[in-house]
Amino acid sequence: MATVTQQQAHRLAAMQGVYRAQRHRYSNAAALAFGLHRFSTPAHLSALRLHRLTSLPQEVEDGVGEYDLAWRCGVGDLECSFKVLWDGVSKNLGEAPASLEVQLNESASASWTLTIIDPTGDYHPRKAGSEWEEWMDDAAYDESGNIIKRLVAVVDWGGVEWTFVGVPVAFGHTRNKQSQRLEFKWTGLDVSAKLFRRSQTLDTIRADRRSSSAPMLRTVLGQIASAYDVDADWGLVDNQPVRTMHMQDGRPGDWMQQLLEAAPFAEWKVRGETLIGFQPTVKSAPDWVYDRHACVEEESLDANAGDMINKVEVRSAREAGSKPEGMPPVQVNEYGVYRTSFNPPLSGVQWRYVQPNPHGFASNFVYRRGGNVISVRNGVRSQQGFDQDSTFMYAAHLKGAPIYDAEEVEFTWGRPANVPGEEAGGPTSAPGEIEFFGALQDNPDSELGETESVTGAVRVNQAAIDKYGENPIELSPNPLLTTLAQMERYGDRYLCRASRIEPKALKVPLNLLLEVGDTIRLTDSVLGTSELRYVTQVAHTITNDATTRGTRFTSVVYQMSPNGR
Q1: d(CA 467, CA 237)
Q2: Nearest to 298 by CA among 558, 521, 505
Q3: How far is CA 218 from CA 201, 233, 289, 343, in A?
Q4: 3-state secondary structure at position 227
Q5: Where are the strands (E) in 95-159, listed by range?
Q6: Exposed, middle or buried by CB within 10 Å (0-12, 13-18, 19+), for 252?
Q7: Quick check: 519 and 534 in contact, CB under 8 A?
Q8: How far apart are CA 92 and CA 316, in angstroms?
Q9: Cα angle 139, 80, 77; round to 5
Q10: What does the pLDDT look like over 471-505, one tens digit per residue?
Q11: Which residues are 556's β-sheet partners?
């Protein structure tokens, strides 16, 4: 609960908002009727007292900066600039009575909504002939997948500038019968949205068995971001060698998530137009302190840790003869040559018919790595009477050679000898399905270490087991985990993440510098508690209406060390 003086300060901020709304939107020039422009010096604070508008706590008055006063008590001037960029052209929204809501999430794109009270419909993208026609619609990308339309919001609050860049995904409007006031809404995500568009590909990156080196996590993450023209900073992510490759025809953001999970469990956020990776942790020195000197307008707590996972079994993905997850059977129909890739690469590859057909058979399997043939199998005798099979064009040492980290296979689907040919009126197709099996292996000489004997690891949060009883889970095999040390660390970090409990939501004055991943110290004088909490979500409402302007955020507490091993 805010103190009386803090509530008075908040009412002052509300009065300023009303006054500015009557004079000039978000204007510093028309700050207050009695002429105060900023609240950055003790003289200004004294002037406030002389006008009997409020009296601030002594601790706030002495040596506090303008932004401190803004986020603690909601006192200050707000200036906003909303611009729309379309294919290199910029247009300012000017004096439109707009408000912006931005929700920042942990390891997910931020979402935003720009609301404009537009009685004439001039800002609506479907108003024919308007200068804003088609500007604020849902067409954010060109035919090459490049972002061509953005919302850029530059906000000055308490003398500190904050920038948000959004990519639109939808628009709409509402009207009611009584007022006929049109309320236009433009919504979207942040610039990371580009990484989560479907059907994108990227060249494979992996460890080379012929080399003693393996790709490093930050390098691979950097290549993913740069391939899709997304500015990223991975300096805060724990670096380590990884066994990795990129899926084809997928979403780059999913590949990024899988790599960060193996970091293990690194998170990401977007600041402006930069995607930032980080390892979540609670710091002994908090970024923000919400105590009796900071205004907390609302607070809610939901404590329920009964289902908290406190024991994990981490399984190895290297089980000989196992089928890689997401490896569908190859469907064949027309007689001809087929090709499929293995992602990740497989060793000791075997195949079988899923749906055989008596009028078709598979032969001439050619396995490749890096574009080079490493093994040929299942050749058929030449029909021309030569004492050769149909793989005779390959070197003898390749016939039946061990299949070692194969990246792709090419094979022929053809007619059996007893089936008439096309010239005899025979069939030209025969449907079937072929499934491939293999084992995942790594170079034992690389930084990844020997992995063949690793089967998994079990990790526990004993304190949580003692308090809530055992609640175990077996995690899905992760092919990026190659050593026992990695699996144990992965299990420790998973337990740490699962122990983030007791989410508490707070509504406070606008704090644009509060970010996901920050640590706050929250002091409750009624309950007599003071605890460090980790921020998982932040939502800003940016408007000239001081009664609705503010920040809502959700924080959790850790029940075990966030550093794991």
Answers
A1: 32
A2: 505
A3: 19, 9, 33, 21
A4: helix
A5: 98-105, 108-117, 149-157
A6: buried
A7: yes
A8: 54
A9: 160
A10: 888 887 776 777 788 888 889 888 988 889 899 99
A11: 534
CA distance 92 to 80: 11
Q: How far apart are the first and last CA of the chain?
A: 39
Task: Please enumerate in sequence order all residues whose Cβ is within 8 A of that of 18, keeping only pairs 6 or more positions apart, or say none.
Answer: 546
Q: How many helices, marked H, and strands, marked E, lie in the chain?
A: 8, 25
Name the pTM for this structure: 0.69
Distance CA 542, CA 157 (A): 10
SS3 per residue for 362-429: EEEEEEEECCEEEEEECCCECCCCCCCECCCCCCHHHECCCCCCEEEEEEEEECCCCCCCHHHCCCCE
In angstroms, the CA 162 to CA 538 distance is 14
Q: Is 154 helix (H, G, I), strand (E, B) or coil?
A: strand
What are 321's two structure tokens? 């003869």
In whole angstroms, give the CA distance from residue 323 to residue 436: 7
Helix (H, G, I), strand (E, B) or coil at 126: coil
Tens digits of per-residue pLDDT, 338-386? 999 887 788 778 888 988 888 888 999 999 988 889 999 888 765 554 5
Task: Tell me the residue length of the chain.
Answer: 565
β-pairing, 529-542 vs 288-290, is unpaired
Nearest to 479 by CA among 305, 341, 239, 315: 315
Residues 6+ apart with CB under 8 A from 391: 364, 366, 376, 379, 399
